[in-house]
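ok new one. same drill as before - structure tokens go in, u give me an amino acid for every spot. 400 of them this time. try not to just spam alanines like last time pls lmao
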């Protein structure tokens, strides 16, 4: 037997689908791919209703074993197997074991290494987002050892990369609700890490550097440095305008109506600002409401957005994406954070208040549209990249 390390944040082990109680169930509005055995099981089912629905509603695509067919959606965008009570007919008549792999596992997923499994949830599921954002302990990690016959057929986990990821998680965690300081500290950490040679004394030097960054945060030096930075309102404005345009092409996606409820407030504030012929005015307006109203609200529940950024660091195995540099990964994450902040601030500015339900709605709908599959992630990243004028360090101008 081989020992496998299983890593799981608390909100992942606590998750349970709430079925018909869900505010925006997952059986609609996006492609539901069925694997080959599932397609055959449904087409040959002895349950006449399942068989008939399958014959009429499965498009046989034969793209791959895992994607042998796609469910056609009804006129209201629902999966044809969903009944009037928003429950799955396959689950009801054939049991959970008859579900396709996609339907049986969503929103659960794992990152697999040879001897380690890192479990997570896709927070395009509103219940997963709720568990993450509302529980102070959601991002506490459980680690267990599970014996199994063979190791996974996957590459070894690079321990230097794992340590980098854990250090970034810690920097974010100690910054609590002051995530602007957390992002600035991450910038400082990654710039220093770049200068440390990967061979000699790497661990010792990294630990020293990591402690120095944590000290700078605790002593207020990071805050002082951040206070010296002048915001770049043109960059902020251009980023928001470009992303608004991009979301305009996503109206058919699941959760778009939810996101649009918040996005239209941001659009309104930017449109008002455009009348003054000065892009700074709406950016200052959003920052003022963020500092005066949102930050005091967050200070009473510091885990809510902190858990989200910790989740992103864990989920993305930040900053180890092999397709881009660590600073580029940080730029992209900061840009997404800036958009989410702006959506929250615009809501408070126009509605007067915000509550946890709004934050859950913003986060799950944002993920539903931008993180549904690798293609949507790439498309969104490409859009953010179009705005970058200087190098990746221009991210600090999004922190003010
Ligand atoms: S979105 Fe999440 S909670 Fe809602 S039905 Fe799907 S798995 Fe269940």
């Amino acid at each position: 037997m081989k020992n496998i390390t299983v890593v799981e944040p608390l909100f992942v082990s606590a998750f349970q689908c709430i079925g018909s109680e869900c505010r925006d169930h997952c059986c609609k509005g996006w492609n539901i791919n069925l694997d080959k055995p599932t397609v055959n099981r449904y087409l040959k089912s002895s349950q006449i209703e399942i068989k008939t629905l399958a014959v009429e509603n499965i498009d046989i695509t034969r793209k791959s074993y895992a994607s042998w067919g796609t469910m056609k959606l009804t006129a209201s965008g629902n999966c044809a197997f969903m009944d009037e009570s928003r429950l799955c007919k396959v689950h009801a008549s054939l049991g959970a074991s008859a579900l396709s792999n996609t339907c049986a596992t969503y929103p659960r997923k794992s990152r697999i290494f040879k001897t380690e499994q890192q479990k997570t949830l896709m927070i395009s599921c509103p219940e997963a987002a709720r568990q993450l954002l509302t529980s102070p302990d959601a991002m506490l990690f459980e680690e267990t050892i599970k014996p199994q016959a063979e190791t996974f057929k996957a590459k070894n986990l690079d321990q230097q990369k794992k340590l980098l990821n854990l250090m970034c998680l810690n920097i974010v965690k100690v910054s609590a609700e002051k995530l602007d300081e957390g992002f600035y500290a991450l910038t400082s950490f990654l710039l220093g890490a770049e200068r440390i040679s990967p061979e000699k004394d790497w661990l010792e030097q990294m630990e020293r550097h990591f402690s120095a960054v944590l000290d700078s945060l605790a002593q207020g030096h990071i805050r002082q440095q951040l206070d010296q930075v002048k915001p770049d309102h043109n960059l902020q404005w251009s980023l928001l305008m470009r992303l608004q345009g991009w979301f305009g092409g996503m109206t058919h996606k699941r959760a778009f109506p939810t996101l649009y409820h918040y996005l239209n407030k941001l659009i309104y504030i930017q449109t008002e600002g455009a009348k003054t012929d000065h892009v700074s005015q709406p950016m200052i307006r959003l920052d003022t409401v963020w500092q005066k109203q949102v930050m005091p609200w967050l200070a009473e529940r510091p885990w809510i957005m902190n858990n989200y950024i910790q989740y992103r660091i864990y989920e993305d195995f930040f900053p180890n994406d092999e397709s881009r540099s660590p600073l580029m990964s940080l730029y992209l994450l900061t840009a997404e954070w800036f958009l989410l902040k702006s959506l929250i601030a615009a809501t408070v500015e126009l509605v007067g208040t915000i509550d946890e339900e709004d934050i859950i709605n913003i986060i799950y709908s944002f993920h539903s549209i931008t993180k549904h599959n690798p293609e949507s992630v790439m498309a969104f990243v490409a859009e953010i990249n179009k705005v970058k004028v200087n190098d990746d360090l221009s991210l600090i101008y999004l922190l003010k």
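The chain is about 55% helix and 10% strand. and btw The longest helix spans residues 326-351.
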